[in-house]
Write a structure and sequence with these properties.
By secondary structure, the chain is α/β, with parallel strands linked by helices. Helices cover about 30% and strands about 30% of the residues. The chain binds glutamine (GLN). Glutamine binds next to α2 and β8.
């Protein structure tokens, strides 16, 4: 058995430890004696997305988002079709924004997204920064760190990843954070996200196996002592620290 992760534009979209998500996936896949291949996709390549079992796009500055816009849009139909078939995707912050409809930036320009789901983002005057806790009906409590100016709004039939317990989330006003659409998770949580929330790493591994091999699998259970420590440390920081808005 093998899982192939497509890591999109790591040189341009990778903030606040986002690469930790790739490392967590790789480790927890290999600890189950499953082979893991990481394909780094950079500008100018012609990737065959049907080879991907998990797609990952991290966060980025507006500048990085603008640079990848055209090329990401050229893959729009292929990626959308695969998402409909259940391709698992993890999208962090700037990556999350670019899989929605558009991101209107602070300089008034619009970066078009691939419209994989009904969400759109408008830059706000203040950055929303801090440790964050959310509660998800599917995954339970989730922790992370956010730093974005974009405010994301979800269409009527779209489920958020969770509800805000502490922090700003999608837009700082409606109490929602992220998105859970088919096997796609979009979220503002950096930090990195998966090492602190290992139940979601395992969810991705299970979904990837189901997507590629057509059947579910019981994953070998692991000792999660360190992962739980990382979760509790991040949770503590979110509870005791003040969220900044500058
Ligand atoms: N540039 C985007 C924003 O500020 C995304 C930032 C990020 O990925 N951390 O909203």
């Amino acid at each position: 058995m093998k899982i192939t992760i497509f890591y999109l534009y790591p040189d341009l979209m990778n903030l606040y430890g986002d690469i930790g998500n790739i490392i967590a996936l790789k480790k927890r896949i290999e600890w189950r004696n499953i082979e893991c291949k990481i394909e780094e996709i950079t500008l100018g390549q012609k990737p065959d997305f049907t080879k991907a079992d998990i797609l990952f796009l991290g966060g980025g500055q507006d500048r990085g988002q603008k640079i990848i816009e055209k090329e990401l849009l050229s893959h729009k139909e292929e990626i959308k079709t695969l998402i409909e078939k259940g391709l698992p995707c993890l999208l962090i912050c700037g990556g999350y924004q670019l899989f929605g409809k558009y991101f209107k930036t602070t300089d008034g320009s619009t970066i078009n997204g691939i419209e994989a789901f009904d969400a759109w983002t408008i830059a706000g005057g203040k950055r929303m920064i801090g440790n964050i806790i959310i509660e998800s009906p599917v995954f339970g409590r989730i922790v992370g760190f956010e730093n974005h100016s974009g405010k994301t709004y979800l269409g009527n039939n779209i489920s958020p990843l969770g509800k805000i317990i502490k922090g700003y989330g999608n837009n700082g006003t409606d109490g929602t954070e992220g998105i859970l659409f088919k096997n796609v998770i979009g979220t503002y949580l950096h930090g990195p996200f998966l090492p602190k929330n290992f139940q979601i790493t395992d969810w991705f591994i299970k979904q990837a196996i189901k997507y590629r091999y057509g059947q579910g699998i019981n994953l070998l259970s692991l000792d999660n002592t360190f992962e739980k420590m990382a979760f509790h440390e991040a949770e503590k920081r979110a509870i005791y620290a003040k969220s900044l808005s500058i």
